[in-house]
Amino acid sequence: YARAPHPSYGDAKIPAWEMIKFSVTIMRGCFGGCTFCSITEHEGRIIQSRSEGSILREIERIRDKTPGFTGVISDVGGPTANMYRMACKDPKVEALCRRPSCVFPDICPNLNTSHDDLIRLYRKVREVQGVKKVMVASGVRYDLAVESPAYIKELVTHHVGGYLKIAPEHTERGPLDKMMKPGIGAYNRFKQMFDAAAKQAGKKYYLIPYFIAAHPGTTDEDMMNLALWLKTNRYRADQVQTFLPSPMATATAMYHTGVNPLRGVRHGGSDKVEAIKGLRQRRLHKAFLRYHDPDNWPLLREALKQMGRADLIGPRPDQLVPAHQPPGTGKAAGTRRPVRPAGRTQRFTTKGLPMK
Ligand code: SF4
């Protein structure tokens, strides 16, 4: 493996290569089972972890052979940052188990959630000669991380560079159940532990939460409540992600059939799921995520009135959109070219930081 783009690209700048050239994959697979994602289908639910020796040798190769290496490893991760060496406690049970997720609706008592191997690996990677900084840029599964305060401390003290992206994806139970994601309570617990660890380390770090608009099973009220949560917590999303049905994902089956396969599919007795397909509703769900953008205010005001929530229009901090429209804004929302749903590459930029 050459760790270089194919020579046929010549001197072309390849953004994907720029992103991964100093990063190391330590495992593959995911037992999360999030319905909008098909990594579990692509890579398997049983985690395949590389040996420490193999990872350390690759880092030495990066150091010695990759042009432009300055001592910073940009990611030590995989589909999820913190599932390294995690597995079912009993291989026989694991072989027979048909649960689509080991962590939803709760962490399975059979799952070994120890982060000790990962912490030891981080320490060894930091000790490689010539390595000055090791980042963790893969998504941290925060409901697992809260099981290990030592991991959060290690992560925050050594491997975060200002921001840490995590993906609660929503705040409301309805869509979260369709996504097979934990409740926002797990996010809150993680945030508390993250903030405490950052304070202890004397660092000013921020969590950047990601959310999805228009996931199957999301109502306008769900999006409104998410927008209120964002405003209360002083988050402003810059780019946002609108659900896109992608091959092999369970949520894609929901989107196309209007049925929830997680609840069993029976003739005449299946659990129905509303798919968000209409352009106006998709725009509206996205607009709720960007409640602070004046271009979205006319659409949001109209929707809030229809929902009987005109009380959320006004200047107070607990209201979502102002009644006034700044000159030169607000026309684009109805006339823009169609919204192209984004892939998994969204989302908050530095403008997504807590306001102030
Ligand atoms: S028994 Fe639990 S930990 Fe084991 S494979 Fe099944 S869901 Fe995962």
List the helices and strands and how they pair.
Layout: H1 15-20, E1 23-25, E2 27-28, H2 39-43, E3 48-49, H3 52-65, E4 72-73, E5 75-77, E6 87-88, H4 91-96, E7 111-112, H5 116-126, E8 133-134, H6 142-145, H7 149-158, E9 163-169, H8 173-179, H9 184-200, E10 206-213, H10 220-232, E11 241-242, H11 250-257, H12 279-289, H13 297-306, H14 332-335
Parallel strand pairs: 1-5, 4-8, 9-10, 10-11
Antiparallel strand pairs: 2-3, 6-7
What features would you describe in this structure?
The protein is α/β, with parallel strands linked by helices and 356 residues long. It has 2 domains: 15-159, 2-Layer Sandwich (Transcription Regulator spoIIAA); 210-262 and 270-356, no CATH class. The chain has helices at 15-20, 39-43, 52-65, 91-96, 116-126, 142-145, 149-158, 173-179, 184-200, 220-232, 250-257, 279-289, 297-306, 332-335; strands at residues 23-25, 27-28, 48-49, 72-73, 75-77, 87-88, 111-112, 133-134, 163-169, 206-213, 241-242. Strands 9-10-11 form a 3-stranded parallel beta sheet. α10 (220-232) links the parallel β10 and β11 (241-242). Iron/sulfur cluster binds next to α4.
